[in-house]
Structures are given as structure tokens and as C-alpha cells.
Amino acid sequence: MGGSASRDVFGANHPDLPRFWRADLADSWNQLNHILKNIAILGGMLVVFAIETSRGREPK
Q1: pLDDT per residue over 14-52, tens digit each?
Q2: 58, part of any domain
Q3: In a domain, 29, yes or no
Q4: Side-chain half-sphere CA neighbours of 53 within 13 A
Q5: pTM above threshold 0.85
């Protein structure tokens, strides 16, 4: 019952559900890999920007 209730709340059985959630397992893992790669790239860019902006604030 809990599983079906959460599916109803989050719309997992909605007929217009995006294709990502209906994809087979291999495609889902491929999409997950791409999402995690993009998050890692974004995190690396944020670290570089933080380091570069802190260089100008060092006391002399």
C-alpha cells in the first residue's frame, strides 16, 4: 500500500510521464552517469571559481 500511495502522490503512473522514467535499465544507468558527470564538472568549476576569487582577498 505504501508503494502505490507514493506512486500516486508523485505521479509515477501518470500517462504523460517523461520518457526517462519509462526507459529500460541500461538507458537509465546511462542517463544517471551523464547526470553525475555533469554534477562533478559543475562542482569542479565551483571549486576553481572559489579559489580564484579568494586569491584577490588575501591580506598583504
Answers
A1: 666 566 566 788 888 888 999 999 999 999 999 999 998
A2: yes
A3: yes
A4: 6
A5: no
